[in-house]
Amino acid sequence: MLKQAGASGAATGAAGEMENRSVEVGEGRIRATLIPQPCRAAPLVVLVHGGGCHSGYFDLPGRSLLQAARGKGFAVLLVDRPGHGASLPAASAYPIAEAAALLADLVDEITRDQLPGVRKWALVGHSIGGAVALQAAALTRRAAPDAIVVSGIGATPTQAAAQWFEQGRTAQEPPPAAFFFGPDGTFEWSSPLLLRRIAQPWRFEEVREVLEDWPARFGAVAVATPCPVLFALAEHEAIWRSDACELKRVASLFGGRASCVSLPAGAHLYELHKRGGAWVDRQLSFLSEAFDDARRA
User: Fold this and answer.
1) What tens digit of pLDDT does each residue of 239-259 get?
2) Which of 15, 133, 182, 206 could join 125 via S-S bond, C-beta 3.0 to 4.6 A?
3) Would the pTM count as exceeding 0.90?
4) Residue 286 contacts by C-beta under 8 Å, 6 or more apart in sequence?
5) How many domains does the chain divide into?
6) What CATH number should be reported for the domain holding residue 18?
7) Domain span at residue 203?
């Protein structure tokens, strides 16, 4: 059941903007901030972060997808996955699948009770958050999303990622920093410092699920995806295969509903690279076009 803390849904700020609301579902295993717009029918964008950080990943200075989406007139649901940020840990051994089911419930209840005028909405997920977003899309009961954007999540782990996981299965060490940043020159010196602001301990159970279970689950999830998808992996992605053949294979699994692209001069944490701002713009362009298509349909 959806719980709400903070401002009333009827409250407005001095400029007439709706106030942010804290919402939760699953007895606090997913907590999120709902950032509405004065127009109650504004499209809703749901942001789902990856591992080793909280939802602040989407509000980094100079590359904030949260602020850019608000500037486009979109309402935003900023989600902390189970065990991250303000959210309590998952209750099962499959935190990604659990988070997807909880997120679907949360979106259903928000669009019913908090934002009943919303008719268009989309999911954006990074890394493990991308796996959550893709699975949640097929679980919502009220209305399917109009678009999904995922990055930093693939279908096949690289050999390096598989080897690291096997070697660290007992020690449960965090992934090496080399998995996340591209070659020198692709990111600013300050990017690792930005990452520290949002970093949180890795949860080994979700790393195990994404590297062991997710690849076998991916095909069925892709087939069940109900809307257009922008699927992106960086040129120097070290955790997931991102070569042209793999992107072509992934596109075929989505049955023509996905645009699978390679993002140049960056790695897994693409928003922390020099071209991160351009990626924010590309995501918003894709979402805006999808919302326009939904409006004309």
Assistant:
1) 999 999 999 999 999 999 999
2) 133
3) yes
4) 147, 149, 230, 259
5) 1
6) 3.40.50.1820
7) 3-296
